[in-house]
Please model this.
Amino acid sequence: MEDNKAIVQKIAEIFSTGDIPEVDSIFAPEYIDHQNDKRRSKNVKVDGPEEFKQIVKGARKSLPDLRVTIENIAIEEDKVIARFSWHSINIKHKRETIETLLIKNGLVIEHWGVEV
Model:
């Protein structure tokens, strides 16, 4: 369970720093982002870890001072649910998301997210 918590913390750190070299070591090649189904046709044209890298790059481009923190986290076996807070001088109101991850063998294989 601590390994899964560390993976979620690393994801928040990647969004906060834009440092993406570790993405390939925490996302499975078959990674699916269910949250991006609506955005896929417009912004993201790839799957797997490359999709996550593009999302991070897009977020950092529009919010260069972005900082993501984990407010709450719950872990049950291979499922992780976390509440993220997104901070930037360009975000006028507090922005929070609920992120659900399926992690198998130390790799994120699926993600669902919603803004709350």
About this structure: The mean pLDDT is 91.
